[in-house]
């Protein structure tokens, strides 16, 4: 790829010289003169020649990141439109509008303007719902994209920084969703804000100060909408836009990862050029995502604020759940026992503070995992070929365990909805989530690891004995066997290209001179973790060349 960049830079100079010669002879058009003027000052031609022919591999899972990107762009477009009509004011007014059931009801101007967008502005409800659905799809796409990156090991060197950018985008996306969902000041969003304010108050020592700072006084305060509004439409989207740009720049700077296969190694990429093939596909996919979101916004109601009514501190709506991506934190708080510590005239609400702290801690574990794995393996090489998840059972098990934990807590966050729809006891659901919080991730890890090892055994058998054809053959001595068909060289390479290095070990504790080595606690910890992740019982040895030749030398495939 470096060679391509060098050729592109030199080519830009040749183009400028040739264009200058044609310009002196009067053979150049206005458009080309403008392009030559721009290239002479910005070097656009050299950059374009080096990057527009950059090769991108073609695999459906790589489109998950693009779904997030396009949803983000749609969020910006629809959000700009909504700012033209939404009024972020806590001033109390009496509603007299198109939605007659609320006529004469006191509400904030923010809630009234949301109703006006929904019922009086042409296309307003459609844009509102596209905006909300895009937010849901944006976070879902980011989580799926990060899980694809995690399971395939795409976070390894040199892409650790891109993992940090992606994680930050996910975290900011969740916060942005919370602030946007709270702006209409309806009964549902107000209940969610009350929930958040209670969590902030549980922080020891500074909780009260943080709450007063965020809400401008006692909840609900008169300034919180005006404070959330610039955060939602300016601060957080601005930071996210910068991170998206940096993320895409790094994707271009690094070679794109690709799944293992013939012709694919750490130095070459098999796929399609960015221009025109990949760009045409990406452009079409953008309109496909936009069309799906518009269809969802047109036929599927989301956040019907008129059905909830304006927020009142003395009311709580039934089924008060935030968007699904916040169900993780809500489930933690809902199922936590109401533990408290009273000392020296102060109360520490552990029932709220512990789950409030667990959510960022679990998210932080996801953030630092690439660096922990790099420290355990000691691998400082660049990786551009992805792992097959089955070949790294412990990592795959950890990812599956996290997803199962998310699912269990999502049930806890909607325990009242689950109870009413399935006619179950809400106490039984709460205890299921409390026990499942500890049991389900462990069970998921064990099951996933065993599945991965089983798939490795199957791959080993396929390499040595070929693919089962379902054809039964009787041998001359009366034995019945199934005919196996040998794999192609392409399939053999894909199933055996992965590395199986020995995990890190401390080595002998006593050297040749009988002197006992000093081993740091960090080295012992690293050795234990390396054995747990890559030691015996975590992988099936792949077939060697000698084993393959021995099995295939005779009529072993029948």
TrEMBL record:
Cofactor field: heme
EC main group: translocase
GO process annotations (BP): respiratory electron transport chain
GO molecular function: metal ion binding; oxidoreductase activity; quinol-cytochrome-c reductase activity
Transmembrane segment boundaries: 67-86, 132-151, 163-183, 195-217, 229-253, 285-306, 348-372, 392-411, 431-452
Cytochrome b/b6 N-terminal region profile domain segment(s): 34-260
Catalytic activity: a quinol + 2 Fe(III)-[cytochrome c](out) = a quinone + 2 Fe(II)-[cytochrome c](out) + 2 H(+)(out)
Record flagged with keyword Magnesium: no
Coiled-coil region: none
Location within or outside the cell: Cell membrane
Membrane topology type: Multi-pass membrane protein
Any one cellular-component term (Gene Ontology): plasma membrane
EC number: 7.1.1.8
Protein's UniProt name: Cytochrome bc1 complex cytochrome b subunit
Organism the protein comes from: Streptomyces capitiformicae
Phylogenetic classification of the source organism: Bacteria, Bacillati, Actinomycetota, Actinomycetes, Kitasatosporales
